[in-house]
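Weekly puzzle thread! Below is a chain. First person to post its structure in token form gets bragging rights.
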Amino acid sequence: MTPESTVYIGKKGTMAYVLAAVTQINQHGATEITLKARGKAISRAVDVAEILRNKFLTDAKIKDIRISTEEISGDEGNTIKVSAIEIKITK
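Winning reply:
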């Protein structure tokens, strides 16, 4: 069994999430990292994955990319559909 970690991408700067992912690999021994993002943060998740692959973990490979639509309940009881992405990176 290989340890897996998930990094949820939000509104912070890109390098904060890169640091979180590198920390998961170096300190916690994770061999696979999943980056998860929704809505406007999707582009930031792609940036994090590319920075990880090209600068910090040059031996890492993208194992899987999944896209989906999630329904979130809005302010007035209505549901809002939001795009989501999961990027799995293995070392």
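Puzzle host: Confirmed. Bonus trivia for everyone else. Helices lie at 14-28, 42-56.
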